[in-house]
Amino acid sequence: MTFNELLLRTAFSCMACDGQIAPEEVQLIRDMATNHPLISHLDVNAVLNNLIREINKRGVGFLKLYFIDLHDYGLSAEQEIQVLQVAVDMIRADERVEYHEIRFFKILRSHLTLVSDERILKDVKNIDETFLARDIRTDYHSLFCSYFSQISIPKFEIDL
Questions:
Q1: I need a surface site. Which of 63, 77, 106, 153 has the fewest CB within 10 A?
Q2: Contact, 147 vs 119, CB < 8 A?
């Protein structure tokens, strides 16, 4: 998987993590494909349709696999910041930040160990302490199990 594909999987995973796909989230991915130099060459509609097929097939297993891929990728500190920025942008795209999304972000954050919370607050736009609060992040295993035992992934429509 290329870093570009990882960014799209990050955006898609954050989009689907609350069990809904909002039109604003789809538009953000399309805007990313148009404006982001790392993914502008990809056929975003084909990628989205493939990701929807995959999540429909695997359900929450898709999100678990995303975390495995993220962990195994071997990101640099700069790439971690980019992943976090994509995640925050997607979570905020529909102008509603839900608890499931914050928990998902905290699991994501726990996989990114090269950057400090201070650097994240400095370099990631539109993030606040809510995303980084240590109240539940300290016990990753509990957070992970809780999230995946409570979320269900519906069947999403293809051809957004």
A1: 77
A2: no
- State how far the Cα of 12 lies from the Cα of 45, in Å rounded to an integer: 12
pLDDT digits (tens, 9 = 90+) for 48-84: 899 999 999 999 999 999 999 999 999 999 999 999 9
Q: Are 22 and 94 in contact (CB under 8 A)?
A: yes
Indicate yes or no: pTM above 0.85.
no
Query: What whole-number distance in Å separates Cα of residue 41 and Cα of residue 21?
Result: 23
Give the C-alpha distances (Å, rounded to integers) separating 107 from 32, 50, 57, 147: 23, 24, 22, 9
SS3 118: helix
**Which of these, 70, 66, 44, 40, lies nearest to 148 by C-alpha position?**
66
The mean of the pLDDT values for the chain is 88
What pLDDT is attached to residue 33?
A: 79
Q: Is 145 exposed, middle or buried (0-12, 13-18, 19+ CB in 10 A)?
A: exposed
Compute how many other C-beta atoms are within 10 angstroms of the C-beta atom of residue 138.
10
- Contact between 120 and 81 (Cβ < 8 Å): yes
- Looking at the chain, the whole-number percentage of residues with pLDDT higher than 70 is 91
